[in-house]
């Protein structure tokens, strides 16, 4: 077995010590970056919470305003009959059928 000199031990110790110092500095730098990111995220979370509170307040105002407004009918009157020209429209079934169902669609 080869003899290890005192000089070799000192060099190995210096290398291990330097590696430990560099490793510690890298870990510290990484922790600082993570800490800054967390602080930024916490600030953004506070902004989001404030926006949610404001949105809830606005929604409450709109609901109160909507409750006070008179009800309006939207679209066509379901009690009314409407004449629709279906002569040139594609159809299934006989033309003499007692009921014709017309479907409207808007594809965008």
Number of helices: 1
Number of domains: 1
Largest sheet: none
Contiguous runs where pLDDT drops below 50 for at least 5 residues: none
Tell me the structural class: mainly alpha
Question: Helical content, roughly?
Answer: 55-70%
Q: In angstroms, what separates the terminal alpha carbons?
A: 84 Å
Mean pLDDT: 86
Radius of gyration, CA atoms, in whole angstroms = 39 Å
Silhouette: elongated
Strand percentage: under 5%
- Give the total of beta strands: 0
Order of helices and strands: H
Question: What does this 3D model show about the protein?
Answer:
With 108 residues, the chain is mainly α. The protein has one domain (1-77). The protein is built from one helix and no strands. It has one helix spanning 6-68. The longest helix has 63 residues, at 6-68. The model has no long low-confidence stretch (mean pLDDT 86).
Q: Which key features would you list for this structure?
A:
mainly alpha, 108 residues
Gist?
With 108 residues, the protein is mainly alpha-helical.
């Amino acid at each position: 077995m080869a003899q290890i000199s005192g000089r070799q031990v000192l060099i190995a110790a210096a290398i291990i010590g330097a590696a430990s110092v560099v490793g510690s500095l890298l870990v510290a730098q990484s922790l600082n970056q993570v800490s800054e990111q967390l602080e930024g995220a916490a600030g953004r979370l506070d902004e989001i919470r404030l926006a949610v509170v404001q949105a809830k307040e606005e929604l409450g105002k709109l609901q109160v305003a909507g409750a006070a407004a008179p009800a309006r009918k939207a679209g066509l009157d379901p009690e009314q009959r409407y004449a629709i020209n279906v002569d040139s429209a594609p159809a299934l079934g006989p033309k003499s059928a007692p009921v014709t169902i017309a479907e409207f669609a808007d594809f965008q």
